[in-house]
């Protein structure tokens, strides 16, 4: 009986204490480095060695990633063109089709415990979060970030991600989404086009949808005449200014609190403009080292 009461008290304390989502602004980071960090953190969270959910916020050099069942036929550029431009193609364990990542794009990888997967998972006692509500929270947080920049966007029925004019005659995709859940913990996440060079989307059929129109916050602000971009609304993606990490940092400052709010979690950690990406990355790598959890080889990786 004493043991039972102790367990009940422990669960009550866990339910009363707010769950923390620790945001980490990493700046520009290579795709494979971020992938390895995700895998190590997700494994530690599932084992119970890591007691806080994590949110990795960053941008990548140009790279194409394929979901675990994605078709390479949706990569339109030949291998020699990609090699000449220094663009790697990496197959990963998330769902979804081909996705482009590059400068000027906010990438967010939430390492979040959804539910315990058995008594030995290390996650027992957590309030469960469903996969569908989690995906909806990601979509809504992207929309919230767009709204902060003066752009109306939201989900589109049957098409994961975030869209401008989702139900109108010319829907345009501004944010992509693809996650993996392993042992009750999420990784991979979203990519929101901020000042992204949209011409790079010509390399692929985005998300396996030929004819899909991609857009960015910069382009949509120009269309609506908002300040901050001197292009005309009809100039097209080839007329865009240079992608900037500073613009991604601004989006990070809006996205992180929006996601924490949508998930009902308490946000912790430094955000731009005060966050130092170099310091944060050193701290994160030290944390992974202390946890002693190796990065699992969940899927073969290799250049196309």
Strand order of the largest sheet: 7-8-9-10-6-2-1-11
Order of helices and strands: HEHEEHEEEHEEEEHHEH
Mean pLDDT: 84
CATH fold topology: BirA Bifunctional Protein, domain 2
CATH architecture group name = 2-Layer Sandwich
pLDDT < 50 runs, ≥5 residues: 10-14, 229-240, 296-304
Count structural domains. Answer: 1
Q: What is the number of helical segments per DSSP (H or I, 4+ residues)?
A: 7
Annotation, overall tally of beta strands: 11
Overall geometry = globular
**Radius of gyration computed on alpha carbons:** 20 Å
Topology:
Elements: H1 2-16, E1 20-28, H2 31-47, E2 53-59, E3 63-66, H3 79-84, E4 88-91, E5 98-101, E6 105-111, H4 131-148, E7 154-156, E8 159-164, E9 172-182, E10 185-193, H5 217-223, H6 245-263, E11 266-268, H7 277-291
Parallel strand pairs: 1-2, 1-11, 3-4
Antiparallel strand pairs: 2-6, 3-5, 6-10, 7-8, 8-9, 9-10
Summarize the structure.
The chain has helices spanning 2-16, 31-47, 79-84, 131-148, 217-223, 245-263, 277-291, and strands at residues 20-28, 53-59, 63-66, 88-91, 98-101, 105-111, 154-156, 159-164, 172-182, 185-193, 266-268.
Question: What features would you describe in this structure?
Answer:
The protein is α/β, with parallel strands linked by helices and 304 residues long. It has a single domain, classed as Bira Bifunctional Protein, Domain 2 (BirA Bifunctional Protein, domain 2), CATH 3.30.930. The strands form two sheets. Strands 7-8-9-10-6-2-1-11 form an eight-stranded mixed sheet, sandwiched between helices. A three-stranded mixed sheet has the order 4-3-5, with no helix packed on it. A hairpin with a 2-residue loop joins strand 7 and strand 8. Helix 2 crosses helix 7 and helix 4 crosses helix 6. The longest helix is centred in the C-terminal third of the chain and has 19 residues. The radius of gyration is 20 Å and the shape is globular.
């Amino acid at each position: 009986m004493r043991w039972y009461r102790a367990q009940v008290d422990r669960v009550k304390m866990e339910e009363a204490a707010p769950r923390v989502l620790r945001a980490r602004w990493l700046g520009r980071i290579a795709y494979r480095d971020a992938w390895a960090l995700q895998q190590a953190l997700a494994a530690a969270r599932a084992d119970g060695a890591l007691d806080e959910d994590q949110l990795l916020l960053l941008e990548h050099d140009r790279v194409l990633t394929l979901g675990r069942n994605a078709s390479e036929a949706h990569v339109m550029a030949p291998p020699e063109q990609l090699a000449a431009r220094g663009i790697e193609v990496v197959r990963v364990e998330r769902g979804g089709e081909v996705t482009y990542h590059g400068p000027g794009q906010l990438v967010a990888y939430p390492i979040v415990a959804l539910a315990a997967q058995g008594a030995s998972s290390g996650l027992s006692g957590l309030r469960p979060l469903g996969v569908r509500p989690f995906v909806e929270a990601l979509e809504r947080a992207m929309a919230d970030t767009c709204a902060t920049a003066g752009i109306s966007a939201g989900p589109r029925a049957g098409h994961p991600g975030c869209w401008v004019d989702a139900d109108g005659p010319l829907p345009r995709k501004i944010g992509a989404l693809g996650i993996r859940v392993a042992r009750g913990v999420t990784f991979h996440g979203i990519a929101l086009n901020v000042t992204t060079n949209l011409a790079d989307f010509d390399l692929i059929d985005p998300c396996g949808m030929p004819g899909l129109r991609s857009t960015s916050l910069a382009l949509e602000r120009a269309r609506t005449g908002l300040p901050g971009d001197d292009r005309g609304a009809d100039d097209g993606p080839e007329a865009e200014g240079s992608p900037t990490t500073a613009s991604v940092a601004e989006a990070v400052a809006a996205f992180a609190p929006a996601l924490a709010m949508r998930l009902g979690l308490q946000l912790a950690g430094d955000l731009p403009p005060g966050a130092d990406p170099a310091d944060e990355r050193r701290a994160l790598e030290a944390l992974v080292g202390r946890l002693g959890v190796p990065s699992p080889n969940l899927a073969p990786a290799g250049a196309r």
